[in-house]
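Tip: read the tokens left to right.
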């Protein structure tokens, strides 16, 4: 993580300089420039300074270039610019002529020792902080763009593969229908054919969802009993979870109906269940629950205000490690993840939230670290 932004209330400086007299002079100058609210640490070499900076982040690094002789050490100065706001101090008249340094605009952070006035120091510190912040933001933006390009390419490749699989499934279905006709609905085979057709239809729905994923989100709501619709999703995902994760379904929605896009409902449900399944370090339990609830007064939930009325509430509850309080406002942001890059890309919850908005539903979240999490989606009752 980069160093904390500069605070003028207190300045934490690391000076890289092997000469005690030079260190004392620089320390005195910085303390005078920032009303003595300055903590000064120093290291005698670039290598020791790198080790120190890896353990304790600083608001400013000051390097005396005059004492750095080897070209290797000069090349390693780039590390400091990438880690914290950095100033270079030199007695050389023209800093642009410094041999062995190729840092383009970063040389603008180099000031002459003879010009170490209070105003010069303050301007240089502000400038180095601004450039460091801009570099950090640009690096983060470049990382996001790179991820986006990779995911876009992967989406195009996957779309082509899924399209071919869908065509193969259609051909298999046609062959099964012809076989059924040839056997004249022979009872010993009929149940097997029905089971195969049902499995192929489920696989086809998955293919259609994958094909629709890369396109602009379109909504085709239908009126359904939410308990039945969620149970259909539950059946498909139940067998794909890790053996250490047990899952159960409780349906208390007996008659109320709502309007929802069934493909979107499947994606919302799947993303929340998979997210819950990753909350366990060992064995864990997930409960999927559907309830009929009546809201008497306005209630604040994660996505805004829940107005009075009748709702069907679908909850995904786990007994995992819970969510760190600092992450509660971040987990729905695209690409935010606490998992390794191999485990996820931080898109599942972001997609789920977007689909909830599209279906005019509301989301609420309750989680305490060490006590598990509960994601609840409220769908307005239509009949």
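Filled-in amino acids:
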């Amino acid at each position: 993580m980069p160093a904390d932004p500069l605070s003028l209330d207190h300045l934490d400086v690391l000076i890289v300089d092997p000469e005690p007299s030079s260190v004392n002079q620089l320390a005195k100058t910085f303390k005078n420039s920032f009303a003595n609210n300055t903590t000064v640490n120093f290291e005698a070499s670039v290598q020791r300074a790198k080790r120190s900076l890896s353990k304790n982040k600083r608001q400013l690094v000051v390097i005396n270039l005059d004492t750095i002789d080897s070209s290797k050490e000069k090349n390693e100065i780039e590390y400091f610019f990438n880690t914290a706001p950095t100033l270079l101090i030199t007695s050389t008249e023209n800093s642009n002529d410094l041999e062995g340094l190729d840092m383009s605009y970063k040389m603008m952070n180099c000031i002459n020792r003879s010009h170490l006035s209070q105003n010069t120091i303050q301007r240089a510190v502000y400038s180095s902080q601004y450039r460091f912040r801009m570099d950090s933001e640009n690096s983060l933006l470049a990382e996001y763009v790179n991820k986006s390009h990779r995911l876009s390419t992967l989406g195009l490749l996957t779309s082509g593969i899924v399209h071919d699989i869908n065509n193969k499934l259609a051909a298999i279905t046609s062959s099964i229908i012809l076989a059924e006709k040839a056997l004249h609905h022979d009872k010993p085979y009929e149940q097997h054919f029905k089971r195969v057709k049902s499995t192929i239809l489920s696989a086809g729905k998955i293919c259609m969802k994958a094909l629709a994923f890369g396109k602009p989100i379109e909504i085709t709501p239908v009126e359904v009993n939410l308990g039945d619709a969620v149970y259909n999703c539950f059946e498909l995902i139940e067998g794909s979870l890790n053996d250490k994760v047990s899952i159960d379904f409780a349906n208390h929605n007996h008659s109320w109906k709502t309007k929802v896009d069934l493909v979107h409902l499947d994606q919302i449900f799947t993303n929340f269940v998979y997210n819950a399944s990753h909350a366990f370090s060992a064995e864990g339990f997930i409960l999927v629950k559907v309830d009929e609830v009546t809201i008497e007064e306005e209630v604040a939930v994660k996505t805004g205000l829940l107005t009075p009325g009748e709702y069907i509430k679908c909850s995904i509850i786990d007994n995992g490690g819970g969510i760190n309080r600092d992450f509660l406002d971040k987990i729905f942001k695209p690409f935010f993840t606490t998992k390794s890059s191999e485990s996820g890309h931080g898109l599942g919850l972001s997609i789920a939230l977007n689909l909830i908005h599209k279906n005019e539903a509301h989301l609420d979240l309750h989680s305490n670290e060490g006590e598990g999490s509960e994601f609840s989606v409220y769908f307005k009752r239509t009949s």
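Residues 19 and 338 are 44 Å apart (CA to CA). Residues 1-7, 94-105 have pLDDT under 50 and may be disordered.
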